[in-house]
Automatic annotation (TrEMBL):
Belongs to the ABC transporter superfamily. It comes from Acinetobacter corruptisaponis. NCBIfam families: PRK10419.1 (NF007739), PRK11308.1 (NF008453). Pfam families: ABC_tran, oligo_HPY. This is ABC transporter ATP-binding protein. Coiled coil: none annotated.
Amino acid sequence: MQNNHETPLLEVENLYISFKGENQQWIETVKGISFNIPKNKTVALVGESGSGKSVTSLAIMGLLPKGQSQIANQSKISFEGKDLLNLSAKEIRQICGKDIAMIFQEPMSSLNPVFTVGDQIAEVLRIHLGMNRKQARSRVLELLHEVGMPSPESKIDAYPSQLSGGQQQRVMIAMAIACKPKLLIADEPTTALDVTIQKQIIDLLESLRQRHQMSMLFITHDLALVGEIADEVIVMRHGEIREAGKVEQVLQQPKDVYTRALLHCRPQLSSRPYRLPVTSDFMQQENGQLVEVSNLAELNLKQRSRGLTGEEPIILDVKDLKKSFYSRKGLWGKDEFQAVKGVSFQLAKGKTLGLVGESGSGKTTIGLLLMRLHQATGGQALINGKDILSMTEKEFSPYQRKIQIIFQNPYASLNPRFTIGQILLEPMRIHGIGQNDAERKKMALELLEKVSLPVDAYDRYPHEFSGGQRQRIAIARCLTLKPEILICDESVSALDVSVQAQVLNLLQDLQDEFGLSYIFISHDLSVVKYISDQVMVMNHGEVVEIANSDELYLHPQHEYTKKLLNAIPQGIGHHH
């Protein structure tokens, strides 16, 4: 992988990591992996949840939970020739934070809400570099400039909650590079961010890496991002390395069946297969080995056409929808924030309207207004000519069944104390569906089958299921009411690519079978193009463009739409 005379900055050899399971059994999560990080290079570690990629980075930083985890005796992690696993706590603290620094996925959980961001960055400088208050403050300003923070002079005294997600992540990066580390570990640093902000952060990390001659370990579940930033890539699955090599080779001629499968699950902008391929289309477990069952050429993917002719019946007609939020300001007035500024659109029966825009564009607010979870400040939403926004609760009741919503994190909306059976039965009871519980149970079991969950899920609890399975439970619960409109709010964005493909296929099957109409809200433009007939682009509470999905992606009319499309990770070799 590299010339022999050059010692790598970091060498991981034979890394075995075990965690204590529920019944005090040790479970091996990382199974003897070895890899190097050369000097001045970016190595990407790619894998789905449970692959061991984040655990590996925590092991390097010495951050694994004590007593709950153990690293095997024969494992070695050498940094500049020193074995990190044999250092005292004090020696580890000196290296980690100074020579090796880390940024995490969720900046808010790593920043302290009660201190200004300036103080938090300054603390790192004072601990590791012994600066006084004045020196630290001027260095913090330099760092905020360097990470591209807008107007650093005013932001240095801001609290984390006063910054946007992208700005918080810039603060985390400033803290990480404050002591000029030799290795920067970035664990899913852009997952929570909009596509345009993601692009800025990726470009920032790359320019900092070059300027400071750092190495970077970039951890992600998104292969498309890897091509934008990495020199070398390591693909992990179930604690093992499946494939490693130069990024061009791995992404363009992957040798391993799993890598090939992952590359094919993600919706492509250039094609729209009738159903998305999933990993099991390509491989099967046989005697503990992954065996290839077919390659993409054999799948012969039939294409699905999308779009509206204008002849479709309209199920929902939204006119001049407005929402303002007010906050008290000063002694006299209120401060008005217009989240949605007079938005109009129509939803065609049995079709999907994609809704894209960055955080704060108003796209999520629209979903909540249509569900009456927020009260609209103005405008109408007509179903069969009746405005559902101005109805009383009683009048709205029969319409409530017709329109349902699925959120990004179904865990928050599934009652943890209810079994899956109770979760499915409750809405049917409330709305008087089915004659009795026996009949409802029969319907619930049919729904579980429909969303590909095992029958025994009926008596189990939400925490026993993975993210993708919980999302299916949330979908099944919506279906109990036989709705006509489903609003999906980022409902696949937290899922791994192979699971995302399964859930998108499920949503598509349900639409084909029941003629459901979808409003699909997402910041993932590849997914939106795949699933939508029509796409509406929002910015600052206004619709900037609305068009059939192929048309919008091929011939965007508005500058803002072009900016969004340009930020989609293209996959390969864009950073060199």
